């Protein structure tokens, strides 16, 4: 399989909420998962949402601390707002730009695997950031939407440069 091109900021697919997957046995869903897993298994990639490769379905893959996986129809069902992290965040769809982004320290997502069995994915720090970031993608949001006002203004100025 070929690695699919990453859609970048300005592409409407990134701002459109993704549709839930209704048929886990569909061969196209299996191909999507294969593409997500292959696409995230490259240096510098922590997560990859389906809409980042042009598919408007609720699915993403992750590659955190040597663990690669995927989840279909993910929903964040727990965030720990008692502790936050405020590190720099980047995105394949906003290439070469990193900005401090406030996220919950812990996150838990429930969803499904290709067999239609419910799964739970959870983690702290980088894994929590990834889960929140990728679910945002599936809801039609970019991490830029989470920036404080001053940082967002600076970020959007930089984004306009890469879009020209």
UniProtKB/TrEMBL annotation:
Annotated binding of Fe cation, by residue: 91, 133, 137
Q: Which GO terms describe its biological process?
A: translation
Report whether RNA-binding shows up as a keyword of the record: no
- Name the reaction it catalyses: N-terminal N-formyl-L-methionyl-[peptide] + H2O = N-terminal L-methionyl-[peptide] + formate
Q: Does the keyword DNA repair apply?
A: no
The UniProt entry, under InterPro entries, shows:
Peptide_deformylase (IPR023635), Peptide_deformylase_sf (IPR036821)
UniProt EC number: 3.5.1.88
Q: Which residues form the active site?
A: 134
Keywords from the named record: Hydrolase, Iron, Metal-binding, Protein biosynthesis
**Cofactor(s) named in the record:** Fe(2+)
**Gene Ontology MF terms:** metal ion binding; peptide deformylase activity
Q: Which PANTHER family match?
A: PEPTIDE DEFORMYLASE, PEPTIDE DEFORMYLASE, MITOCHONDRIAL
Family the entry assigns: Belongs to the polypeptide deformylase family.
Q: Please describe what this protein does.
A: Removes the formyl group from the N-terminal Met of newly synthesized proteins. Requires at least a dipeptide for an efficient rate of reaction. N-terminal L-methionine is a prerequisite for activity but the enzyme has broad specificity at other positions.
- What is the name of the protein in this document? Peptide deformylase
Q: Which organism is it from?
A: Boudabousia liubingyangii
Name the gene behind this protein: def
């Amino acid at each position: 399989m070929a690695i699919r091109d990453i859609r970048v900021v300005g592409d409407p697919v990134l701002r459109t909420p993704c549709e839930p997957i209704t048929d886990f046995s569909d061969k196209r869903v299996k191909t999507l998962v294969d593409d997500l897993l292959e696409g995230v298994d490259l240096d510098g990639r922590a997560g990859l949402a389906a809409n980042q490769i042009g598919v408007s379905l609720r699915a993403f893959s992750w590659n955190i601390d040597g663990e690669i996986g995927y989840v279909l129809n993910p929903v964040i069902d727990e965030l720990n707002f008692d502790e936050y992290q405020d590190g720099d965040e980047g995105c394949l769809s906003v290439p070469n730009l990193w900005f401090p982004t406030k996220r919950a320290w812990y996150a838990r997502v429930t969803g499904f695997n290709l067999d239609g069995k419910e799964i739970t994915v959870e983690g702290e720090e980088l894994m929590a950031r990834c889960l929140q970031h990728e679910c945002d993608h599936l809801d039609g949001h970019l991490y830029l939407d989470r920036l404080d006002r001053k940082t967002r203004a600076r970020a959007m100025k930089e984004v306009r440069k890469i879009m020209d």
